Amino acid sequence: MHTGPLSQKLFATAKEMIPGGVNSPVRAFRNVGGEPFFVRRAKGSRIEDVDGKTYIDYIGSWGPNILGHAPAVITNTIHEVAKDGVSFGIPNPFEVEMARTITEWVPSVEKVRMCNSGTEATMSAIRLARGFTKRDLIVKFDGCYHGHSDSLLVAAGSGALTHGEPDSAGVPADFAKNTIVLPYNHPEALESLFAEKGDRIAAIIVESYPANAGFVLPQPGYLDLLCSITRTYGSLLIFDEVMTGFRLGKAGVQGLEGIKPDLSCFGKVIGGGLPVGAFGGRADVMDMLAPDGPVYQAGTLSGNPLAMAAGLAQLKELGKTSGYPRLEELGAHFEKGLRQLLSEKGVPHRLNRVGSMFCLFFTDREIINVDDVMKQDLEFFRKFFWACLDKGIYLAPSPYETGFLSLAHTEADLDDTLSVFAEALATI
Ligand code: PMP
């Protein structure tokens, strides 16, 4: 058993009342065959578990904590704002400031609506695209995760251009058949689908850089093709930047790649660690939303003052001239050390990194889509994960997740981590 006695006791109790003992499945550590630790507190780059062990954290709450854990700019803001009320259900000024920040930073977003999670953002963007185009079909890519709404919990067999099979019990097949799953980075599959059904396709939804089945990068020209094909057929392009938005730069991947999607989805970083989501884009499309238009979408806690203020505090800090360059500097330092270490040890690997996001694959296959990701040495990953965790390095408890650096990480943290990696590799 790798976790301490208090974590073990909490998990045993949790399992009696919470399905699987967790409120989100990946937290159960099933992909690495073990049990999770429970967190007592976290600060900067470090997490402390209930048994008093500390870890350098490479997850950052799965993306939101880009300044590190509990930065004073966010905790002070939350304390101050909470004194004046934590939810009103009536418009508040922070919502306007958040909308201004998002529309200024992301040029494709002319109007934006706040919601409470990435799932809500993508679900609403899809409903909006269907309402705007008056078409039912949507296209997603194998291995892309867009939250757990019914239309998006579909991933067909890779390489096959098929109508969707539900990926979860409880999603009616009749519903899922409107979701078409394509292999990622496969231009011919896309072109032949649109040639056949393009005039019935409401939208393509794509993770701007797919980061939920490893971290997979688009091949040159692929994102441009998504843009041009949707334009040709009158479909919409929805960029899911829940993970990458405000993390890889002020304008996310669309800024890096020079892409102008019709709609974009956000979450994570813009809430400063509080529950949040947002979707936005072309004004003519967004104006279809209630109360102005016929597409219904709503939320009791949407635009919540605490989440807005915490997110704004985080964005303000990031927007300082040093924020994104510093994240790149840290990422490059880590990448260089990691490549050197793995080459010295002769470990077959691929490493994808952009800015503060990275993913290490234990394979020498080129990573083009989820098929390649699935072929890595999963047993090696599991051993590596536990060896690192035992020595105080917390990596994602799954070989399919992306790692995150924060502004609280230091070069010393990264070097310590690389030393632990070296020790871990020696034990496998
Ligand atoms: N889209 C992407 C790209 C995501 O990575 C996630 C969550 N990791 C979601 C949507 C869903 O967000 P949430 O968990 O906030 O519902």
From TrEMBL:
Top enzyme class: isomerase
Record-stated family: Belongs to the class-III pyridoxal-phosphate-dependent aminotransferase family. HemL subfamily.
CDD domains, sorted: OAT_like
Associated pathway: Porphyrin-containing compound metabolism; protoporphyrin-IX biosynthesis; 5-aminolevulinate from L-glutamyl-tRNA(Glu): step 2/2
A family per Pfam: Aminotran_3
Subcellular location: Cytoplasm
Domain of life: Bacteria
Organism, scientific name: Haloferula helveola
Cofactor needs: pyridoxal 5'-phosphate
Keywords, in A-Z order: Cytoplasm, Isomerase, Porphyrin biosynthesis, Pyridoxal phosphate
Gene: hemL
Quaternary data: Homodimer.
NCBIfam families, per the entry: hemL, PRK00062.1
E.C. number(s) listed in UniProt: 5.4.3.8
Modification N6-(pyridoxal phosphate)lysine, positions: K268
Protein name: Glutamate-1-semialdehyde 2,1-aminomutase
Catalytic activity from the UniProt record: (S)-4-amino-5-oxopentanoate = 5-aminolevulinate
